[in-house]
Amino acid sequence: MPLGTATILAVFVLFCRIGTCIMLMPGISSTRVPPRVRLFLAIAVTLVMAPLLIGAVQAVVVGASAQALVGLIVSEMLTGAMIGILGRLFFLALEMLGNVVTMAIGFGALPGTAVEDASPQPALVPLIMMGALVLLFITNQHWEILRALNASYQTLPVTQVFGARFGLIRLTDALTDAFLVALRVTSPFIIYAVVVNFAIGLANKLTPQIPIYFISLPFILFGGLLLLYFIAPELLHLFIDGFSTWLAAG
Fold it and tell me: Which of 5, 76, 129, 232 is the right S-S partner for 16, CB 3.0 to 4.6 Å?
């Protein structure tokens, strides 16, 4: 492959989609990963995938005007951002439902170190998120994301301008699937919280002179942690299975 202006420009156009996707994909987009590491990883992946994809891109770049190149770069960045965000939506949904679970079992007051974001979160949420991210890499789902990124050049070729309507439809579908998976995973805790709070509210109505809520709080927390102890492996497996099924279908 001769190293000329067209080749360098074509590789840069590839980097716009691949690099943006890697910067936003789950696990690698964490604030715990230094931006320089993410940048070097994006460059390395782009150079590895370039021999497979550069032919179609080079045909578009050669002879294109400056205005067309700017539009192409913006379109490729939007496409890469959409692919990266689609995968990250599942982990954002799990993180949000994890916060709901911690509040439901009375564990939300204890701060912990965030995994995906920089802001502190309840201690139970980083534990769940770390387990999900470890399973993502152990089960090689990060390779499936890169496979989907490679296949996107057939589904969304470089010659096709990014469609906002198409992107919104895909984001809506992925958001629906992500929250359905996260809700299915965390449903035992939600049912537990509804049953326990209903029982405590009923007991409080029967004995209003006793502060039932403050007395029952340690028992609610113990029951929630005991439930987590028994179903945590199944919870993470169900989540990663739902994520892998969506990746295979998408």
Answer: 76
